[in-house]
Design a protein that fits this description.
- The structure is a homodimer.
- By secondary structure, the first copy, chain A, is an alpha/beta fold.
- Chain A has two domains: about 20-70 and about 370-485, Aspartate Aminotransferase, domain 1 (Alpha-Beta Complex), CATH 3.90.1150.10; about 115-355, Type I PLP-dependent aspartate aminotransferase-like (Major domain) (Aspartate Aminotransferase, domain 2, 3-Layer(aba) Sandwich), CATH 3.40.640.
- Chain A is built from 18 helices and 14 strands.
- In chain A, the strands form four sheets. Chain A has a seven-stranded mixed beta sheet, sandwiched between helices. Chain A has a three-stranded antiparallel beta sheet with strand order 10-14-13.
- In chain A, helix 6 runs parallel beside helix 14 and helix 15 packs parallel to helix 18 (about 465-485).
- Chain A starts with a helix and ends with a helix.
- The interface between A and B is large, with 95 and 94 residues.
- Chains A, B: This is Alanine aminotransferase 1.
Chain lengths: ~500, ~500
């Protein structure tokens, strides 16, 4: 390119060279190169190209409905009533669904879900979110003023990180995230030019979190940034662990001692399967630790309509609760979210139903409970099946899927595969996943997209496919793994 | 605060002093202090506090349904069918609505709007958007690969600006925006720490845009930043002008000569009322100017489901079309939007209906056309009424509302009012609007929230209230203005 072109005149105004360099650094493996290739293959299949398989199974993303999970009837009835209120006269809809729809519409401008809501979210929904949290946490109070509805949890997480980032050079804000992590975090940090501080989960102890490791990571980071935030995902994504109460206490104590803002990503709070495991909210533990903690530790907790038993990803609903946030900062947060006007009102409506589901004395209760229980029971079964099957394959080691929707097994790769990947400019587990996609039509995400200890290799797979299909998937991965290992040995 | 507290230990982790300084600089007047006060007054009214009025009329924001505008029946029927597909068996719904719902559901993962879509948006909807643009622009081709669905237009505008910002100090990206402007732009630029380059619209020529003024602003800016972008809002917000074809050509020529990326905010493209005015899309004009322009000028155009005749703000639907964008940059854009997974699928579904409405041979056509025509005719009537009424008030001068949904009249304020405002630390037009709110219950946005020439004062009011209510609003503002002027003279 000529000098003149480099300066812009003559060439494009906007090029890879002169675009926002932070955006260039953003990576998001869950929808990265492998998914693009998967979509290409789907097109090729449609066009009649012959492949060793007839469909691509996208186990790369926690997208329940795409995997055949049915929506909760009650939720969709209310949403249809909200969209087209003429149906409120239709006696096919149960009374409790109509009552919820009327409540939601009554809180909308002009009684329409087509009106903007308050930027923080519809007030009566924020009240119901607070009541839901109080019930979940055994009565610990929640203030609707501290609830911000959001466009999925991602939106709230990015907004919260944005508030927290400041400083230049060695004063730049550092943010502690687990490795492996959900790549929204690393992507947001790259975008904000914040410093990522990686702390490693302990694979040998079921992806446990150890405070000594937090201390190591923090003290290493203090030399080049200003650590201000710790992010925790519980239940874990991609690693599926469920944190013990003790561990949560340790993290809270660490956050207080080290003066860190605590971000608790709790979007999988209903997805706990393993015996002896239980979801403990960070907020509940914080308050049970006494006023020394509950009145000082600054925290935000995130939830979403996309996961749990409902899996309504497309609606982009979610909320965050902020605790002990400086009122002046809260005013800034409210201002910041107002620039985007409001979260999607249909997502807010759905969230209202999640936090205010049918009650035992209401007509939709039994169907709702049946549907909810079936989804969670199936997930629990699939969590067990996945762990058991993978652990029968030589060269695959799989921790229990205690919660969430993913397994993150460790795979042993032959040295020749690692060398081949290097030659092709790929991460070794990317080579593995690409081959799996081409040969079996199964789309996974390589562990390198989430981070992993140097020299170890993994992939993330959702456990969402229906049981019979999941069995096929597991069998295919098993066969592939044996074949791949043989091929490169 | 002690030194120790200043350093964080002892005080809050996150304070006004140590939060992201860019976020602090963000301002968004459309939902600023005056709206917060309006909401407080609404609460007071509910609690029985006596006021000189019985309701607050929020004319601060273009929120059609909140002002009583009814949704388009066909759109809501299809959305209800998508939300609750059991209704597809219901013979109360017309066949064309069912056919659209089936098409949308067929394009969703697992046939559910609860699945994530592709990050760029559902493919068949992007195809329909392209066909819609082609039809609008008399056959000029549109490529679905260049269409990105978004969470309202705001989302796409911010994303596009984010791609474009780079450099430090005098190399920092400068972005030209009109004054008055829609404050999403200034807010996004503050957030991105980009340099705002203000060019003034000519109030005396019906808020016209003059290339000499663009040149003045650009050359003044080159001393302290790197101007790379020009943003145009047409039809104008808050100023309601509709640009002539000639003016659009001038802007395109200017963008090419000065090597600027062109961002065309065309969300009010169906909202044109004044005789002799017509909406010309930037893309159409660009292509009609010949290959010298159509193959070089980089551009993005934005549209939304929130405005026009549908006014479905709550669904957060929208799209952008990018033209002549470097393919490597486009790949970066696709990557960037993937981090947020996807725009709300209900908003995408609504957009599908906007770009693919009932056709003459379909059962819903006549109702659809009737509803659409009624909304646009009422808006045209209210645009005329507003201009006429304001221009009868001494001290208010009002340009014709040629398009969009707002009037931005100039108000003459007595010197004593200006002095009083200064004493109270308020912008003079904020004082005016606050008094109007307290005395008459009408919520407007002061001109200072949009920018205006030094020493001039304005407010923005939407023309959306129903005609009879709008008449009352105009009368109340008239009375207030006379009273305010007398009081401060």
């Amino acid at each position: 390119m000529s000098h003149q072109a480099m300066n812009g005149f003559g060439g494009k105004v906007l090029t890879l060279e002169n675009m926002n360099p932070n955006v260039r650094k953003v990576e998001y493996a869950v929808r990265g190169a492998i998914v693009q290739r998967a979509e290409q293959i789907e097109k090729e299949l449609k066009e009649g190209v012959k492949k060793p398989f007839t469909e691509v199974i996208k186990a790369n993303i926690g997208d329940a409905h795409a995997m055949g999970q049915k929506p909760i009837t009650f939720f969709r009835q209310v949403l249809a009533l909200c969209a087209y209120p003429d149906l409120l006269d239709d006696n096919k809809f149960p009374e409790d669904a109509k009552q919820r729809a009327r409540r939601i519409l009554g809180a909308c401008g002009g009684h329409s879900i087509g009106a903007y809501s308050a930027s923080q979210g519809i007030e009566c929904i924020r009240q119901d979110v607070s009541r839901y949290i109080e019930k979940r946490d055994g009565g610990i109070p929640s203030n609707p003023d501290n609830i911000y509805l959001s466009t999925g949890a991602s939106d709230a997480i990015v907004t919260m990180l944005k508030l927290l980032v400041c400083g230049e050079g060695p004063d730049r804000t550092g943010v502690m995230i687990s490795i492996p992590q959900y790549p929204l975090y690393s992507a947001a940090l790259a975008d904000l030019a914040a410093v990522q501080i990686s702390y490693y989960l302990d694979e040998d102890r079921c992806w446990g979190l150890d405070v000594a490791e937090l201390k190591r990571a923090l003290s290493a980071a203090r030399t080049h940034c200003n650590p201000r935030v710790i992010c925790i995902i519980n239940p874990g994504n991609p690693t599926g662990q469920v944190q013990s109460r003790k561990c949560i206490e340790d993290v809270i104590r660490f956050a207080k001692e080290e003066h860190l803002f605590l971000m608790a990503d709790e979007v999988y709070q209903d997805n706990v399967y393993a015996e002896g495991c239980k979801f403990h909210s960070f907020k509940k533990v914080l308050f049970e630790m006494g006023p020394e903690f509950s009145s000082t530790v600054e925290m935000a907790s995130f939830h979403s309509t996309s996961k749990c038993y409902m899996g309504e990803c497309g609606f982009r609903g979610g909320y965050m609760e902020v605790i002990n946030m400086d009122p002046e900062v809260k005013a800034q947060l409210t201002k910041l979210v107002s620039v985007r006007l409001c979260p999607p009102v249909t997502g807010q409506a759905l969230l209202e139903l999640v936090v205010n589901p049918p009650q035992p004395d209401e007509p939709s209760y039994s169907t709702f409970m049946k549907e909810r229980t079936e989804v969670l029971a199936a997930l629990a079964e699939k969590a067990g099946l996945t762990e058991k099957t993978f652990n029968t394959v030589p060269g695959i080691i799989c921790n229990p899927v205690q919660g969430a929707m993913y397994t993150f097994p460790r795979i042993t790769l032959p040295q020749r595969a690692i060398d081949t990947a290097k030659e092709e400019g790929l991460a070794p587990d990317m080579l593995y996943c690409m081959r799996l996609l081409e040969e079996e039509g199964i789309c996974l995400v390589p562990g390198s997209g989430f981070g992993q200890r140097e020299g170890t290799y993994h992939f993330r797979m959702t456990i969402l496919p229906p049981t019979e299909k999941l069995k096929v998937v597991l069998q295919k991965i098993r066969d592939f793994h044996v074949r791949f290992t043989k091929q490169f040995s």
